[in-house]
Write a structure and sequence with these properties.
single chain, about 120 residues, 2,3-Dihydroxybiphenyl 1,2-Dioxygenase, domain 1, 4-stranded mixed beta sheet, Bleomycin resistance protein, VOC_core, Bleomycin-R, Glyas_Bleomycin-R_OHBP_Dase
Length: about 120
C-alpha cells in the first residue's frame, strides 16, 4: 500500500528557498545534520528540498502537481508574494481549475482543484 509521497526538489540556496516557501504559507524546517536539506509542509502536502551546488534551473529543475481545495483562493493568496512567474487560473478540459507557478529555482508548480459543475 502506498501511503504518501514527498517529491525532492533541487534548489540553489536552501535558506532562500525555505523562506520563499514560508511566505507561501508552508511550515518549513531545515535538516539538522551536515546535509543542506529541508522540509516544507502545508496541510497534507510535503515537499523536500535539497541544496545542490550544480543545480541549473535550465537543466535540473523539477515539476510538481499540487491538488488544492480552491485554486483561485491559493492564487489570490500567492499573488504579490510569489517570486518568479505566477500564471492566471484557468479551467482545463480535464475538469480542473488550475494555475502555474515557476519559482526562481525553475521548479514548475501546477496547482489545481476540481471544477464545480
Amino acid at each position: 500500500m502506498f501511503e504518501r509521497v514527498a517529491p525532492i526538489i533541487p534548489v540553489g540556496d536552501l535558506d532562500v528557498a525555505l523562506e520563499r516557501y514560508r511566505r507561501l504559507g508552508f511550515t518549513v524546517r531545515a535538516y539538522g545534520g551536515a546535509e543542506r536539506y529541508g522540509f516544507v509542509d502545508r496541510d497534507d502536502v510535503s515537499l523536500y528540498l535539497t541544496e545542490w551546488a550544480d543545480h541549473d534551473p535550465a537543466h535540473t529543475a523539477a515539476s510538481v502537481y499540487l491538488y488544492v481545495s480552491d485554486a483561485d483562493a491559493v492564487h489570490d493568496e500567492w499573488a504579490g508574494i510569489a517570486e518568479g512567474r505566477l500564471g492566471a487560473p484557468r479551467d482545463t478540459p480535464w475538469g480542473l481549475r488550475e494555475f502555474t507557478y515557476v519559482d526562481p529555482d525553475g521548479t514548475l508548480h501546477r496547482l489545481g482543484s476540481p471544477l464545480t459543475r
